[in-house]
Specification:
By secondary structure, the chain is an alpha+beta fold. It has 19 helices and twelve strands. Helix content is 52%, strand content 11%. β7 and β8 form a beta hairpin. The chain is elongated and about 100 Å long. The C terminus is likely disordered.
């Protein structure tokens, strides 16, 4: 008797297991049907209770939905929504940022919260047309609702997610709404795509998205009426950067906007760029006023742009640039020294020679390079002194040698009584001539002073009747 019951145990266990699977599948399919019907879907097919993997198909308007047990983990539910999107939609891919493939360049739409969660690739017009503010909000919500999900992606025209049965009722309506938005008819004509981009550029709540759409609109549809109107509207955008980029694209029409941005204190980088664009059109007085305000407020980028623009005002800018060189430190002082050289004015030589003694080595190097452009023979000895004083700084030694060579190249020869550079060693000076009483630097040792023939250690007077005391 016991042997008989023992032989029945495997059969009874197997039957119990199959019955358990049946009951489990019935329960899952029933829950899926409830979730589908609650989301206004029409169930068209579902699996037998005896099927090894439970599944269900439903439709809702243009969307087709598949719900089934996950192949990777039978305890999870796999959801797929087939979307008949616009042309190019099947080439659009979206997945969680942590699943980003290596070596693939992504598209960032300009929404930091969205871009940090999702990796996007595909036809750029399709991406920016479809991922408007509402679509991004829904996808972020779906990502938050599917905390147990191993998968949330868009690929091949399908929105796919993997979640738990108890979270399906929360995530299904959100992804259906995303699918319906993506399935809306889109006119592939250029005018409609441009209209959608212009609409995003003007209305999206995220400044980064507005800017990205505006730049794409300008790149893809340059010169078209809708593009010009979008640029004009963007000149009043709350974002200084958007106003800047729009005004730049409008050329002369955007000039006043750029001037206002140059004088604005809202964004240092934007003001600096505006100064760089319109600096040549600003008066010396206006540029100087912007520079002084930028220096007081420590807006370094704007100050740097003003210094560069002032260099084009020549001699008029020497005094203000000399003051910046003397009073500032580091990058700004070095930029001012460089600008002094770019003025091309001989009046820049004295403050540059003084700058060779600046306590900042970067400024000394900049001053030496600038003297190579505007310096005269009077700058050679200060250059040599600066190099000797900082003999271990290779940048300064290199800059001084180059500056002396540039000065020499401008003085290939000297008439009697004029100062010239010796021909053998860079840095040697001599007074050209043939008359006694002239001063020369020796040709043998760099920087040594020699006297004209006569009594050793004495200066001789010329024999032309010069009064004593003249050399």
């Amino acid at each position: 008797m016991w042997e008989f019951f023992a032989s029945l145990l495997p059969v009874l266990f197997g039957a119990s297991t199959v019955w358990g699977i049946r009951q489990h599948n019935l329960g899952r399919v029933r829950a899926w049907r409830d979730a589908a019907e609650w989301s206004d879907l029409r169930v068209v097919e579902f699996s037998s209770p005896w099927a090894w993997r439970a599944s269900l198909k439903a439709k809702g308007g243009p969307l087709e939905v598949r719900i089934e047990a996950s192949r990777r983990n039978g305890g999870l539910t796999s959801l797929a929504i087939e979307v008949p999107g616009p042309p190019g939609f099947t080439g659009m891919k979206l997945r969680r940022e942590e699943h980003r493939p290596r070596g693939i360049r992504e598209i960032e739409v300009g929404d930091e919260a969205f871009d940090s969660r999702f990796f996007v690739e595909g036809p750029i017009r399709t991406v920016f047309t479809l991922l408007d503010a509402e679509a991004r909000r829904l996808l972020i919500s779906a990502d938050g609702a599917s905390l147990w999900s191993k998968e949330l992606e868009l690929a091949g025209g399908e929105i796919r997610a993997e979640t738990s049965d108890d979270r399906l009722p929360a995530i299904l309506p959100i992804l259906l709404e995303v699918g319906r938005r993506f399935a809306q008819p889109v006119d592939v004509a250029r005018w409609d795509v441009a209209r959608r981009l212009a609409e995003n550029a003007g209305k999206d709540p995220k400044a980064g998205v507005r800017l990205s759409n505006l730049l794409l609109l300008v790149r893809e549809f340059p010169g078209e009426p809708g593009t010009v109107e979008a640029l004009r509207a963007a000149c009043s955008d709350p974002s200084p950067e958007i106003r800047l980029r729009a005004a730049e694209k409008l050329d002369a029409e955007g000039h006043d906007v750029l001037v206002n941005l140059a004088e604005s204190e809202v964004d240092d980088a934007v003001s600096a760029q505006a100064v760089s664009v319109v600096g040549e059109d600003l008066s010396f007085e206006r540029l100087t006023a912007i520079l002084r305000l930028a220096l007081r407020r420590r807006r370094r980028e704007t100050a740097h742009a003003c210094i560069e623009a002032l260099s084009r005002h020549g001699e008029a800018a020497v005094d203000i640039l000399a003051k910046v060189t003397a009073r500032e430190q580091g990058e700004l002082a070095a930029a001012a020294a460089q600008a002094l050289g770019e003025t091309g004015s001989r009046q820049a030589e004295p403050p540059l020679i003084q700058a060779l003694q600046h306590k900042n080595m970067e400024v000394q190097v900049a001053a030496a390079k600038a003297l190579g452009r505007v310096g005269s023979a009077a700058a050679v000895l200060p250059l040599k002194t600066a190099a000797e004083r900082s003999s271990r700084d290779q940048d300064l030694r290199r800059a001084t040698r180059q500056a002396i060579a540039e000065i020499q190249s401008r003085l290939p020869g000297a008439s009697p009584g004029q100062l010239s550079l010796a021909g053998e060693e860079v840095g040697q000076l001599s007074l050209a001539g043939a008359e006694a009483g002239q001063l020369t630097l020796a040709q043998t040792e760099e920087g040594q002073l020699s006297l004209t023939p006569g009594e050793p250690g004495q200066l001789s007077l010329s024999e032309t009747g010069d009064e004593p005391g003249e050399t």
